[in-house]
């Protein structure tokens, strides 16, 4: 008796279905406005890199420090949010389990 054919979805068939869908939904969507931080970084990044040649890797760290006290920062002067503590470990203590002899 011959085997019954089964419908099996594969990665290629899913990609083909996605490719046939119209991409008009994405074309109508306007770009989001840059945030105040994005505008600040764009303005000050080139200046900082020009003033500190060879230290481009440190630029973002310095941008963050500059942003903290910048007048453009809407959160300037506010206290930072507290970080959540990590949940306690599942192991209650580091003592080995006791054996009942």
UniProtKB/TrEMBL annotation:
CDD domains: HMG-box_SF (cd00084). InterPro entries: HMG_box_dom_sf (IPR036910). Coiled coil: none annotated. Residues 91-101 have a biased composition (Polar residues). Residues 78-87 have a biased composition (Basic residues). It comes from the Eukaryota. Residues 1-34, 66-101 are annotated as: Disordered. Gene3D superfamilies: High mobility group box domain. This is HMG box domain-containing protein.
